[in-house]
């Protein structure tokens, strides 16, 4: 099965994608890991798209990430798109909590990049928290449009509004896979 988990930053898409990949014994692919270069440099499409295409050549995967400009690549053979659409306050709380944990731990976000959260970045206009605030509603509008777009009628979309729904979906998908 090929699954793309999407949602605004802080929604819990990475956590759900990892849990799904483990439960389904499928490779976990993180778009941010494929995307970000050292020192927070963004790749060109010519650099990024082939990396994504190569990663998606597997028979099954759980892909964590949005990057709408890649829809034609990642959704050409996807079976299921799961949209994690939690309430704004919950999403914002999760984004802030995660950012603070990353600042304090100084964990390298994607191996080999040296990219780490910092106090300066956290309070800047480039902050993932500010990104979440600015893009929460437009992200919701975008996924509502995409779900209704006839171009994607071959895709099964599931919209999750709570962690409880996410856990139930994992159980359901494992049950289906086991046959």
TrEMBL record:
Gene3D superfamilies: P-loop containing nucleotide triphosphate hydrolases (3.40.50.300). InterPro entries: Cytidylate_Kinase-2, P-loop_NTPase. This is Topology modulation protein. It comes from Parendozoicomonas haliclonae. The lineage of its organism: Bacteria, Pseudomonadati, Pseudomonadota, Gammaproteobacteria, Oceanospirillales.
